[in-house]
Design goal:
The protein contains 17 helices and no strands. The protein is mainly α. The chain folds into 2 domains: 203 residues, MFS general substrate transporter like domains (Growth Hormone, Chain: A), CATH 1.20.1250; 197 residues, Growth Hormone, Chain: A.
């Protein structure tokens, strides 16, 4: 791909040039919404395809034993998720201070995508777990920088009255990315293609977004220096002073813990318990994801609408958590693949309702209306942190479970169900919301 000149970048922004900082958009620029949705879809396609399918098989191919593959997968995904957790807010903050002549967000979107593509290629050819680990950390950091910078353009480009609609369009890109990746991998037979093809699509969509974006440009750096203390201080809250917000954070963390650990080890579960070959396992994961996402798309709007109509949040969050628990228990004891797919659909049914109502509940317990973005960032940690912790401790739980009559993966899914159940119960510790 040839490098774009500053003149070409400016021309791509349109005849009006770059948006000045502080400008309130009168209307959403033409092409912006599909461009933002496209870049989000591309990032989720590139990042979630390995998490859902291809990373497990890559690690299996370069690990001497199944037990070592399980431990290695937990290590790679756990450490990588930590890098994502740090990179997303850091890149967002740094993009706010970027004075590039290409704009504030464009360098991070395009640069992150290109670095990520290189990291994916390195994973594809790696024959060492440590190389995969380093490359996956690079990928998580760079692709989350793309997400942070791209989504930071929303208030820059979209009037306040239209942001909900644009956010809704962008919101469906996560399940579409999961489905797209699961579908794409069924046609790719080697590790290199499974990592590079989704990443190449993501890079192409990032370039498309850069071309349509009329980016803000910051001509002078902010007078106040950005310090490490300011960065970490932005994600701190006082649970004693704001107990409802603290219980909301903990509820989200516990339910997400039960949800986040499911997909990571599903490939191993299918190949070990049901003796499926690699290609059949990939096709089964696609079917399970279709069932889960279909159920999620049904329950998400229904849960939100009923919650608004009745005027209560906590019962819907609790019921959604219990439904996920039922799915996890069924998954743990699934006697055949059909039951496993049904279990995934039940989990998706609960998750869809939880995600819709939980966000509405969260907006009612934010500590300070002047710090909404900061407090939502704190809640985002409760979404992201389980994706680091669950894979990290899973190998130990699976190893302990393997010594019992139940088996390693059954014990692991039951543990996830127990944690999610705790989240469903603790939602009633939130007193300021019905």
């Amino acid at each position: 791909m040839t490098e774009m000149s500053p003149a070409a970048m400016a021309a791509a922004a349109g005849t009006t040039g770059f948006k000045a900082p502080g400008t309130t958009p009168g209307k959403t620029p033409r092409g912006y919404t599909p461009g933002l949705a496209a870049v989000n879809f591309g990032v989720y396609l590139a990042l979630l395809t390995p998490v859902m399918v291809s990373m497990a098989f890559k690690i299996q191919h370069i690990s001497p034993t199944t037990e070592q593959a399980t431990a290695n997968l937990g290590l790679v995904l756990g450490v990588g998720a930590f890098f994502a957790l740090i990179a997303n807010p850091l890149a967002g903050r740094l993009s706010d201070r970027t004075t590039s002549r290409f704009g504030m967000r464009r360098p991070w979107v395009l640069g992150g995508a290109l670095v990520g593509l290189g990291g994916f290629a390195l994973i594809g050819i790696a024959d060492s777990v440590w190389v995969v680990l380093i490359a996956w950390c690079i990928v998580q950091a760079s692709m989350n920088a793309v997400l942070a910078a791209a989504n930071a353009t929303l208030p820059d480009q979209v009037p306040l009255a239209s942001r909900g609609k644009v956010s809704g369009v962008v919101g469906i890109t996560t399940p579409l990315g999961i489905l797209g990746g699961s579908f794409l991998v069924t046609f790719l037979s080697d590790d290199f293609a499974r990592f590079v093809v989704p990443a190449a699509i993501a890079t192409a969509l990032a370039v498309l977004f850069v071309l349509v974006l009329k980016d803000r440009r910051l001509d002078e750096k902010p007078a106040q220096r950005f310090t490490i203390g300011q960065f970490f201080g932005s994600f701190v809250f006082n649970p004693v002073k704001h107990p409802d917000f603290g219980w909301t954070w903990l509820t989200k963390f516990l339910v997400m813990f039960g949800y986040a650990g499911i997909a990571t080890f599903l490939p191993f579960y299918l190949t070990e318990k049901f003796q499926l070959d690699e290609q059949t396992a990939i096709q089964t994961i696609l079917l399970a994801n279709v069932a889960s996402m279909a159920a999620m798309m049904i329950s998400s709007p229904i849960g939100g609408i009923l919650s608004d109509k009745i005027g209560k949040r906590r019962p819907f969050v609790a019921i959604a958590g219990v439904v996920m628990v039922v799915g996890l228990v069924l998954l743990a004891f699934a006697p055949d693949v059909t039951t496993l797919v049904v279990a995934q659909a039940i989990i998706g049914l609960g998750a869809g309702s939880f995600f819709s109502v939980d966000l509405a509940l969260a907006t009612e317990v934010l500590p300070n209306p002047d710090d909404t973005a900061k407090d939502l960032g704190v809640l985002n940690i409760a979404n992201a942190l389980p994706q680091s912790i669950a894979p990290a401790i899973a190998p130990g739980i699976i190893a302990i479970g393997a010594t019992t009559a139940l088996g390693g993966y059954t014990v692991y899914y039951l543990f996830g169900a127990l944690v999610a159940l705790a989240g469903a119960v603790l939602v009633y510790r939130i007193k300021g919301v019905k």
